[in-house]
Amino acid sequence: MEHLTLVDGNSVMFRAYYATAYPGAVLMQTSQGVYTNAVFAFVNMMDKILEQTNGHILVAFDTAHPTKRHEKYQEYKAGRAAMPEELAQQIPLVKKYLDKAGIKQHEQIGYEADDIIGTLAKEASQNNIKVDVYSSDRDLLQLVDQNITVHLLKKGMKELDHYTPESLYEKYELTHHQMIDLKALMGDPSDNIPGIPGVGEKTAIKLLKEYETIENLYVHQDEIKGKMGEKIRENKELAYLSKDLVTINVESPLPFSYLETEKIKIETSDLIDFFKELELKQLVVRMANQNQNTLFKDEEKSDKKTDKSFSYDLILNDEKLNDIIFNHQEPMSIHFEFSEPNYHKAELWGIGLSNGENTYFIDPSIALNNQTFLNYLKNKEIEKYTFDYKAIKVFLMWHKKAIHTISFDMLLAAYLIKSSIGKEDFTTITSLFSSIDISYEEQIYGKGAKKGLPENKELYYEHIAKKASVIYKLKDDLLETLKDQNQLELLQKVEIPLSEVLASMEFSGLLVDNKELLNQKEVLEKRINVLEESIYKEAGETFNISSPKQLGDILFEKLNLSQGKKTKTGYSTNVEVLEKLKDEHPIIPYIMEYRQLAKLYSTYIIGISQSIFSDNKVHTIFNQALTTTGRLSSIEPNLQNIPIRTEEGRKIRKIFVAEKNHYLLGADYSQIELRVLADIANVKHLKESFLNNEDIHKSTAQKVFHVTDVTSEQRRQAKAVNFGIIYGIGAWSLAEDIHVSPKEAQMFIDRYLEIYPEIKQYMQDTVEFATENGYVKTLMNRRRYIPEINSKVFMQKEFGKRNAMNAPIQGSAADIIKVAMVDLFKYLEENDKKSKIILQVHDELILEVPEEELEEMKELVPAIMKKAVKLTVSLETSCDVGKNWYELK
DNA sequence: GCATCATGCAA
DNA sequence: TATTGCATGATGC
């Protein structure tokens, strides 16, 4: 043994916790609500420390029991804030991690972690062993000697300061022997060590440079003049008590010696399982990679390993492919592996096929040119199981090929069981539902710019085949769960059919008018240039207007405008702040206009240009398994956030046009979320208003303000409350929104809940349901889990409550339009209509309709939307047509 | 090259 | 200190 590492467990844990627990932060936690942020950061820190160790390591902890220091000084560590519950809960987890990682840990009643570390460090040092100590507590600096280096963690945990006798001298001009005396003289508010009042670091260093020790200082106490001398003489006892308190006991009676600290060899899989339990995916991946690298060293192979317990057959020619299709007419799982997430332009890397017993990797270029295989895909009699059916369907559409009869999709099933899987990959989803061992994508293909097929082909052949086998193996379990949760219909009658609708929409795409696009681009460029000049002129210098930092400096330092809110990195320059400043300086209106135009230019003009395909269309991708509420989302480009609220922005919609001889038809649900609320909460007066076809915001205003004639301001305020209620609003935010005092806002809310008392009841009931069950559900039994609702952190619990109230409303509205889409698509297909659904924007559908079907569709589309779901209030729609999207008002 | 922040667009 | 999203440019590692 030549080296020993000692870690102050409590101190590192504190740092780990507070590195991510700034006020207002959402702490990392598992889906069951177990906090993991400190564990995660602790493991990261330990990983760094372990890189520097040589096999001997120990982590020391404090105990909750009082120590000798408390006996000597009752006030020791008094006044310290209690450890937050979220951190306390994680201590056992950190200890469990250390066990699993084979790292020795120790705590001892009556002693602090400092004492354990000090004793072991000095023992080792006396035997000429090099010691590294890790902590964030400066007290430990007194341990520094020729063999002992102390590393202090800094705030962000990213850097360490290390102290040797030399560096201590450089920093304080004191020897390491004087560190105890330094601390004793200065005191330490965090441990409630008194020190000598009035003596801080500067004075303490000066005194020690002259007198070396506290003892010697008091020998010469009478030489010191002035107030300082008085203080020193008066507080002799405090100084000695402080010295006693800060002195680490380097002779603690430990039940083992420094020699018995060797790291134990461990089963990596245990540790991986532990991280999986805590849903610490990054750590799982890192451990898996480390493990692989070790194996790679052991086996001295030129590549990563393949899994010997998994077998599959390689199908690389037509004969074999014909054979297996001939032999397998039973249901099988099929997986298409793509080179990138955007399947509109992805390459096909491979196909996996499995019936649970036999699993195959099929060469994609063979498959796509093999008629037997293509017939198999489009055979309506043979069931197939997939993971992300829509991707396969769209890819095949681009290649003019078909696939039919998907009776199970693992991605959609997993999403219905747990809507928070949205951003996870195949492997993580698999590990949530089974213990099947399957590599992470990045282990096989690498990540970021380096992503690509590995040189060792077997590696990805196996990976792709394995995915197919996993789909098959998990099918029954997932279906069972869905059945238990009454969600089978949601999968089979809504989500899987919807995949086909969305595939058709994405593949159809939306035509772009290039001339209009270029024209708007030029107009915007010119206007932005002019604005830039005006802004620079007003500012007296050029700077990057798009940089909130630089803009903040100009506005609030150079021009001395009154700053409003701050962000955590500096001044806020958002539109609300600018709005308040707009009369203070002529630069402000220019900046506001610049912001608006720059947004339109970069996000909509440039952004959308980059997504146009060679057919002059944009082909978005609707993510069907992402949002926690059941809504869709749209990417590349996002066609669900095209501007509409300002005329300036709305013009962007002129870019999107119907094909020749076609019209765009837009139909949207009116007030669908309020109608859903009226239905599920059984809100009497709200239902009446809907029944009478009233302007809902107006009638709310009439009731809230006790008036017959509603001013436009009153209507606007009532509308804000109607919206706010759906989101679980608080008085403070409503006040911000409608520019009244929080008191008035609270009054509005109270009045509102008096008028619609069932809403209040609904909210209470929903929160109660979520608290008991951990989830809420929609009309069609879609679930959203809300672990935060049982959090002890106020803000998180409140967030949980708002989600509990909002998710069923937003989610049910999503259910309804999804059903409408499936119904409408089916009608169009069965009746051989040429009209096509091309977009969905949460409560509206946009179709591309040939001229000859226009009149029919104006009737049909709203009709189908209205009767998608039967509620106790009617669903109403409005409908518009135009040659471009702008004309759909 | 990648992650994070501030900002702003939609329902 | 209102719900759900996505894309952007700037910035820092």
UniProtKB/TrEMBL annotation:
Domain 5'-3' exonuclease: 2-264
Reactions it catalyzes: DNA(n) + a 2'-deoxyribonucleoside 5'-triphosphate = DNA(n+1) + diphosphate
PROSITE patterns: DNA_POLYMERASE_A
Enzyme Commission number(s) of this protein: 2.7.7.7
Keywords, comma-separated and alphabetical: DNA damage, DNA repair, DNA replication, DNA-binding, DNA-directed DNA polymerase, Exonuclease, Hydrolase, Nuclease, Nucleotidyltransferase, Transferase
Domain DNA-directed DNA polymerase family A palm, chain residue ranges per copy: 649-853
Protein name according to UniProt: DNA polymerase I
Record organism: Alteracholeplasma palmae (strain ATCC 49389 / J233)
